[in-house]
């Protein structure tokens, strides 16, 4: 073979090489799995230092976090209930990320989607449960899609940075939500915790049999897998990845970049809106400020930990859900404020962003590149 | 004027491997102070690898580098700079918003915490009086012409005491006059032993006119070398590409007057990146079976014209029609009218770096059967098989359809794009500097394919900054100046002098 083909004819040498460094592709796959784990490990070390400084024994706190997140069936259920909305809201970052956009405004779509679901629930009181739930879910998704779709449209047609605008849109959504919930839509019975009237109990979505976990978890897992397939295997997904990889090449191929941008943002927003629907229907029973639980920022973390791979969003959401679920136990057992776990979440986020620069530079890829 | 001599640099047995691929194989060259040495070779021949070893970007796997007789390990570019080695890149590294003086000064490796601009300026002024050419020191870099920018790049190296200059294809961004001017200056300075020059190029003409020594690399090996006087263009070309020199073999088979109009552009206007009016009413027609060449100095609206025709820029006015129907470069229109596009810098404009060779070859077809079953399910097996067929038919040198597109050499990336575009049997082909930066063999292959497509009846719009290319391929040539077509001639009546005058903008007086 010629000089260019030389890489393909080293088979004899390859058979003896360990799988992980046999080819650049294997090394990349190994990195994709090992680097996020290593990043979380580094975050644990840094968080341990933080705990030592504030005077708590790090190993005991770690053990509490583990017990609070995954130690018992009860804590597992708590974790999974928190992971469900994270999966759906993470898709609001993951899908636009295929086009190279960084959307961090999932919270706004959750709030407005949840509010819309509650309104539909109130209007449809007395209707058959299936109809009520279907309308609530559909309206929540449409509102979420419109909200984030607007972010995409501003980005494409007006050149507004989508990260900034989606963040500002969240503040806007919070204000609109507060205004409506504390004003025209307020149930006078809700004194300290203003909210809408409660929805018809028939519209409470049930739990997965023999668990305390609502169906939102199943919806989240199905949505993540479906989107993963869409991105990997359909022309729509391929088109999104072409735009994300090189917008100029996408235009030369005649791809409708604007339409794809708006569609990807809207699709992501629809899932965030759906998360709002599940919180209202399955957890809160009305729209109140409990809906503004900062799922959005944790969900951004989930998407980044998963490197914007929709299938990897599932385990990442469970891990982050576990950290959040452990907050209460950490507070009770160590007298630490429950925001302590948010410090951990923040450290994880920083290390994960840092770890993006590790890809292709680890000893693994060096060994794979050195060949022979 | 008692400057120290440029360093004496010698490489011996230099070898560099990347994995199982030997990029540089036992290369030995001596560079005496004041030499003008040309390094000649095709893309991928190892020229860049050699100079990157010299500049400390790569560590050689074998052999040695000696500077002023001392064998030395060059760990990083800073070490190279300290030894007096400097590099001028193909693309500019100036900060556009800074003045020439500021650019000169901030090029040093270690900047002080606080810059004393007054003494810096005095230093620069004193330095400039010793230089054989002038540039406006207080102009901002973005205001300079390409030729002036390249001079500033050279001055920057000299200002920081780097007297052994490596220039990587420095003339590819310059007009022919600017290139002559710059290489002439360098040759003059080398003659007075003010500096040594190592020029990387694949333009034989530059080597023969300016260099006094030459080394030819092919596939990492030193094929031949010596005094330039011992070579001629034919012998150098032969060493570069192997036994036979490549030349486009497909000839245009007679003018086909009266083919139907395929592309019609009427009074097209568009804005440039900075909101300037880059296209000021362009009208042109390309018929089936002809190549319309567009000549012009770069920056006269050619890029914007291509951008509009490829859907990368919005027109502010005018009409584009293909086969008599309005055309907006949408995906469906491109497919129905079979429009192919060969962009300049194909990796930047036509490929997706994050994807494989197969995915890039399938950029136009992934959303249609047979690759997309039923239009919504991509069959990766079919995608790969189609890619394999194209790789074989167009002789793309790659590890296979699943290799990342970034693993291809520049010539093979353009070949990939060519394969993809020709696969749709284009009726209209838009080619913009399709051979920019490619080696002799790749250029010949692309010229062949363009002419063959024309002979099959395609309408081809060819924009090029290389007049020789246009004269060799076109049926008609038009000149673009100031966002308009200012002159048009059939190939039979084309005259380099007249074209040149119109390219320079003084066609009105000449006519």
Indicate the radius of gyration of chain B in whole angstroms: 25 Å
Number of strands of chain A: 0
> If you compute it from the alpha carbons, what radius of gyration of chain A comes out, rounded to the nearest whole angstrom?
23 Å
Q: How would you spell out the order of helices and strands of chain A? A: HHHHHHHHHHHHHHHH
Fraction in helix of chain A? over 70%
Mean pLDDT of chain B: 85
How can the largest sheet of chain B be summarized? Answer: 6 strands, mixed
Summed up, the helix count of chain B is 18
Quickly give the structural class of chain A. mainly alpha
Greatest chain-chain contact: A-B, 34 and 44 residues
Note the beta-strand portion of chain A: under 5%
In total, the number of domains of chain B comes to 3
Measured between the Cα atoms of the first and last residue of chain A, the distance is 16 Å
CATH superfamily placement of the largest domain in chain B: P-loop containing nucleotide triphosphate hydrolases
- The separation of the N and C termini of chain B measures 50 Å
Gross morphology of chain B? globular
Structural account:
The complex is a heterodimer of chains A (372) and B (511). Chain A has a domain at 85-325. Chain A is an all-alpha fold. Helices cover 71% and strands 0% of the residues of chain A. With 511 residues, chain B is α/β, with parallel strands linked by helices. Chain B folds into three domains: 9-241, Rossmann fold; 259-338 and 427-511, Rossmann fold (3-Layer(aba) Sandwich); 351-424, no CATH class. In chain B, the strands form five sheets. Chain B has a six-stranded mixed β-sheet, sandwiched between helices. Chain B has a six-stranded mixed β-sheet with strand order 16-19-20-13-21-22, sandwiched between helices. In chain B, strand 7 (164-168), helix 6 (176-191) and strand 8 form a beta-alpha-beta unit. In chain B, helix 14 (410-422) runs parallel beside helix 15. Classes of the chains: A mainly alpha (372), B alpha/beta (511).
